[in-house]
């Protein structure tokens, strides 16, 4: 079992260490699941004495205050006190919502994140962002708060549908492109279905963790993590408004392809990145830039009426606060 230290908590990863965990210090333990993680992941957890299961329905559409209400009611009906613990067993939806529910129940109880998707392992596990959506607007209600710990077990990925695995891989690719040329070389030299997930996850978490620790309030360095996300969010919202939502990682990969055109990488590097993404992922149709402009103009990172991008200067390095007016795009 290996430890990555982040802020005031640790991210543990590697072999199946869950049976070694001791919850005896807690009055009660609840495990938050959705129907998929209940079926596929819960059986891999050890039996925990005095624990209850709280099940919510999967999907971003259920990452809302009504689901939180249900979680709070379940905790309250089962007399959970301030010395109790919530374990969030699931993807980013369960982690964000369960973490928020725990942080606000009785002014805050402890919670442990057990991410079961690649996206939640390499991205949501670091940075303390918790919350729910409001009327379709993402993460409108939330807090920054850290878990007691994050426990990462790559074997959870065995049951994850391939489209979800590839969606999470979009963030791994982003991490490599913005700060680790070696990781990029490794990614492109190994067939997708032969990836060493344990190593990829560790390297990827270390990249995000280092960036977040160096700039917790997103004044500079942390903005690098937005590479691919300005166009990516616009693409994601475009598909959401059409009523045919796509996965976050798919939108990020499309965002990376669009933002490459503004980046300073050489034509050769540009081709290498494009070829890798296009030959390994079947992405939805890329909307016309003119259809994305309304969403770009509403991006919360915009400055002085210009759209703000984090862009590659090379493979493995990235610059922030690149401002473009919409007619320059
Ligand atoms: N807090 C952060 O810093 C942060 C960062 C990135 C994303 N997020 C949030 O994460 C959410 C997306 O997370 P996600 O991509 O993990 O999606 P998700 O949580 O919706 O999970 C995807 C699907 O996979 C299923 N699933 C999860 N683990 C499984 C497993 N091991 N086996 C089988 N099925 C499994 C889930 O039930 C769900 O149907 C978004 O709400 C996003 O805002 C948060």
Could you explain the architecture of this structure?
- This protein is of the alpha/beta class.
- The chain has two domains: 2-159, Rossmann fold; 167-328, Dehydroquinate synthase-like, alpha domain (Up-down Bundle), CATH 1.20.1090.
- The chain has helices spanning 35-40, 65-77, 92-104, 118-124, 162-179, 181-189, 197-214, 229-241, 248-260, 267-280, 289-297, and strands at 2-6, 9-13, 29-34, 51-56, 85-90, 110-115, 129-134, 137-144, 149-152, 307-314, 317-324.
- The strands form three sheets. A seven-stranded mixed β-sheet has the order 1-2-9-6-5-3-4.
- A hairpin with a 2-residue loop joins strand 1 (2-6) and strand 2 (9-13).
- The longest helix has 18 residues, at 162-179.
- The structure holds nicotinamide-adenine-dinucleotide.
- Nicotinamide-adenine-dinucleotide is lined by residues 34, 36-37, 40-41, 58, 60, 63, 90-94, 96, 116-117, 119-120, 123-124, 127, 129, 138-139, 156, 159-160, 164, 167, 248.
Key features of this structure:
Rossmann fold; two-stranded antiparallel sheet; 11 strands; 21% strand; 2 domains; binds nicotinamide-adenine-dinucleotide; Dehydroquinate synthase-like, alpha domain; 329 residues; seven-stranded mixed beta sheet; alpha/beta
Structural class: alpha/beta
The CATH class of the largest domain is Mainly Alpha
pLDDT below 50 for ≥5 consecutive residues: which ranges?
none
H/E order of the elements? EEEHEHEHEHEEEHHHHHHHEE
Beta strands, count: 11
| Portion of residues within helices | 40-55%
CATH topology description of the largest domain? Dehydroquinate synthase-like, alpha domain
Shape summary: globular
Q: What is the number of helices?
A: 11
Supply the CATH architecture of the largest domain: Up-down Bundle
Q: Roughly what is the average pLDDT, rounded to an integer?
A: 94
Strand content: 15-25%
Give the radius of gyration. 20 Å
